[in-house]
Amino acid sequence: MNALAIQHPKASITPTGIDFHQDLSFEEWNDLGTTLAPVGKSIGFMLGDWINYGHKAYGEKYQEALERTGIPYQTLRNYAHVAGKVALSCRQDNLGFEHHAVVAKLKPDQQEHWLGLAAEQNLSVRRLRKSINFGRLATEEEVQGDPADRGQVTYLALLNRLRRWWKRETDKAPVEQWDEERRQGLKNDFKLVLDIYEAL
Hints:
By secondary structure, the chain is mainly alpha-helical. The chain is 64% helix and 4% strand. α1 (26-58) crosses α3 (73-85) and α4 (97-103) packs parallel to α6 (125-134).
């Protein structure tokens, strides 16, 4: 059994990634993501709670945690800090660990307020942080308007990402081997790029 106890007939989940043995249908791929996502969102809390329990029951245990997990000290310390500051009853399962890290410095009633708002409004971590700083819900425009809050993304960076993606996909299998559904889906998705090209 693998470490995550997640099994799939067409893939093996290992400590270093997923080895796909067969092609997945879109539904299979989607279902696997739905299964994996909660693990990613909760692992920081699981490790943080584990460390905090060990500390309470046995004293300082970071050395043991470092040896058991191989995770850097600062990361484990952050997990333990956030898990210790944000009570289990206050945590929102539809928000990521980083959302909770943003509110860890606040009092419990404020944590509950901001996490509830983040879940209700589907706030990004950045927008949640900005909203707390403002003391009110920040608009998307306010978040996007602050140069300190966004990296500079140029069309060349996007094209390079697209080139890398294309190379990875065609290295796995030539386009001629792709099924018609996948090819048609990508044609539909990439029509926007063609429209941009033709507008120039």
